[in-house]
Amino acid sequence: MEPDARNRARRQAAYERAAGTHRGAAEVETRAAELFDRLGQPKIAARHRAASRRESECAQADSDEAALWSQLRDDGAHAVRAEIGPVRQP
Fold first, then answer.
1. pTM of the model
2. How far is Cα of residue 47 from the mean position of the Cα atoms in its chain?
3. CB 3.0-4.6 Å disulfide test: which of 9, 30, 62, 73 passes with 19?
4. Assigned domain for 90 exists
């Protein structure tokens, strides 16, 4: 595998991990908002809902970045194949 392709794969994996982490944080913030609603603390619950939205937005942005790096990786592989031509079987 070419060095650039390895770097693209690493970046894609890093963005996928980040997206998963943000999704988990969004779930925690949502649960915290529900708990504060039950405790009768609407202002604190609203802050947690806002934090949950921000985490969800970050998760979506990281997922989009991972998809972009995946596409770049795929496009790079196609470009290399086009450059060297078809592979001949012995």
1. 0.73
2. 24
3. 62
4. no
- In angstroms, the CA 57 to CA 40 distance is 27
Overall number of domains in the chain = 1
Burial (CB count within 10 angstroms: exposed 0-12, middle 13-18, buried 19+), residue 16: middle
**What is the span of the domain harbouring residue 50?**
3-82
Residue 87: pLDDT band with limits 50, 70, 90? very low
- Residue 28, classified by CB atoms within 10 Å of its CB into exposed (0-12), middle (13-18) or buried (19+), is middle
Give the C-alpha separation, 61 to 30, whole Å.
19
Residue 58 lies in a domain: yes
pLDDT tens digits for range 56-76 = 999 999 999 999 888 876 665
In a domain, 87, yes or no: no
Is residue 44 domain-resident? yes
